[in-house]
Amino acid sequence: MEKKNLDWSNLTFSYVKTDKRFVANYTNGAWDEGKLVDDDMIVMSEDAGVLQYAQTVFEGLKAYETKDGRIVTFRPDLNADRLHDSAVRLEIPPISKELFLKSVRQTVAGNAAWVPPYGTGATLYLRPYIFGINPVIGVKPADDYQYRIFATPVGPYFKGGAKPIVVKVSDFDRAAPHGTGNIKAGLNYAMSLHAIVTAHKEGFSENIYLDPATRTKIEETGGANIIFTDGKGKLVVPKSNSILPSITRRSLVYVAEHYCGMTIEEREVTLAEVMGGEFTECGLCGTAAVISPIGKINDHGREFAFASGMTDMGPVMTKLRETLTGIQMGTVEAPEGWIVEIDV
Ligand code: PLP
Ligand code: COI
Fold first, then answer.
1. Does residue 188 sit in the same domain as residue 302?
2. 254 and 290 co-located in one domain
3. Has this prediction a pTM greater than 0.90?
4. Residue 271 within any structural domain of the chain
5. Are residues 186 and 322 in the same domain?
6. Segments forming the whole domain that contains residue 138
7. How confident is the model at residue 96 (pLDDT cuts 50, 70, 90)?
């Protein structure tokens, strides 16, 4: 199959319209079986539930071309589970795992020419989402919903690829205690927009959000979980009920333990211990971010520089990143069930 003629190695993380998208509709209390369509436009009521009360949840996953030319996805069953949990929290009727996995297969196969070639550093990003589509004026859930998934070829999430970035400790909270921080809802990202624009204006790449109750513990950034290492074989992962259960982070915990021989600590991590030099390296992890190294954290003018520096990713994050991407691209043997091949 002939690939599209794109400058694959220089793609950024932005939207490119591809050929096919998958659409399913929920009406009269049931999801239909859905199908691939060409039309990227959506026509809906001016009073659609998603437009009035932000009733929408989403996912993000990627398709990869492996070294031997297969097209694969990474742990899509976990995206199906998380989309289910997000939907339930926002009173959206969840779609079945079968429908989710079918939609992933069909969307990737229908856009196979858009899957970036192995070795270019680019991947095909998939964005599944569900939203309330019928008119809603009192504050209540919609009756009708649409599920869609589109694909777009992407490069690195942060400019400069895997170069260390500088982040700030945000003055805003991302999630309330007992709120929606642990699900993937559009509303969590709407509230982060002012914070990220502010951070960018100040010269920072991202925001670190603290725990909303005490503002002393590290939670995550706007679009990724955070991981730390002490440089002595330990991976430390912040634990909190209000961070998104990142599939990348959960996979890295396994990879660190079983492939890299590290010990894992999942626990509360205070800003004070990070700024006090407890860790040698820090990374942002997520589907979009993969692992992006943090070089410096700025807390209201007080700066902490990780020992790994601002030039390159440190050795531990490099090893974790290479192992994870090796599993995703078929050069490192994957744990059972992690890689789902797409028939094209
Ligand atoms: N945290 C937030 C707020 C995110 O938006 C994402 C992206 O999906 C992640 C973490 C990483 O999650 P995952 O590894 O499942 O992509
Ligand atoms: C992802 O990593 O898939 C996300 O949804 C993060 C987003 C900020 C692009």
1. yes
2. yes
3. yes
4. yes
5. yes
6. 8-154
7. very high
- For ligand 2, say whether the CB of 60 is within 6 Å of any of its atoms: yes
Q: What CATH number does residue 241 fall under? A: 3.20.10.10
Q: Which long-range contacts (CB under 8 A, 24 or more apart) does 297-306 make?
A: 297/166, 297/167, 297/168, 297/169, 297/208, 298/166, 298/167, 298/168, 298/169, 298/204, 299/168, 299/169, 299/271, 299/275, 300/169, 302/275, 304/274, 304/275, 304/277, 306/164, 306/279, 306/280, 306/281, 306/282
Same domain, 253 and 137: no
343: in domain:
no
**193, 239: one domain:** yes
Count of the separate structural domains present in the chain: 2
Residues 181 and 265 in one domain: yes
Looking at the fold, whether 288 and 149 belong to one and the same domain comes out as no
Q: Which of ligand 2's atoms lies nearest the C-alpha of 127?
A: 3
Using a 6 Å cutoff on CB, does residue 153 contact ligand 2?
Answer: no
Residue 342 included in any domain: no
Ligand 2 binding pocket includes 287 (Cβ within 6 Å)? yes
Q: Is 223 in the pocket of ligand 2 (CB under 6 A)?
A: yes
CA of 114 to the centre of ligand 2 (A): 19
* Alpha-carbon dihedral 42, 57, 144, 101, rounded to 10 degrees: 90
Residue 15 confidence (pLDDT): 98
Ligand 2 contacts CB of residue 291 (under 6 A): no
Q: How far is ligand 1, taken at its centre, from the CA of residue 59, in Å?
A: 9
Bridge pairing between strands 21-27 and 30-31: antiparallel
Q: Which of 287, 290, 291, 328 has the most ligand 2 atoms within 8 A of CB, as the residue to mutate?
A: 287
> 22-67, pLDDT tens digit by residue?
999 999 999 999 999 999 999 999 999 999 999 999 999 999 999 9
Domain CATH number, residue 150: 3.30.470.10
Ligand 2 atom with the shortest distance to the CA of 222 = 8
Q: What is the pLDDT of residue 161?
A: 78
